[in-house]
Fold:
Amino acid sequence: MEMPRIRLGSDAAWLELAQGGENSWRVTADWCSWLSADYTAYLTREEAADFAARVLSHLRAPSGARFSASVTPGRNNPLVLSAEPVGDGFAFFVRLTPHGDDDVCHLQMEINPIDAAELRDLFDALHASLAL
Structure:
């Protein structure tokens, strides 16, 4: 069985969240080969499923309004996605925090707009793969 994962972005700028073990997730990102991140985050399947469900609730909203979603609400939060509506999709501003909610050691990057229907499919697939 393939482990749950999601990859957002293109070849120039991308973010991937992939389960590696029971409560071990790999966060990897690259921005134009200039900035990159690759670290392990502690997340339960329930936390990852809740994150996917929260993002889906915003993507299904007819308003197409901007939104932000943290993977976890606590100090161990490895990333935050902030979505800005652009045309029929959303551009993402990503804040990666390998050491939890850390204002000193973090990476911020932008991912070009992704079609809203494609995003719904990606987050639907992640959420379905996490179903318990």
Q: What stands out?
A: The two ends are 14 Å apart (CA to CA).
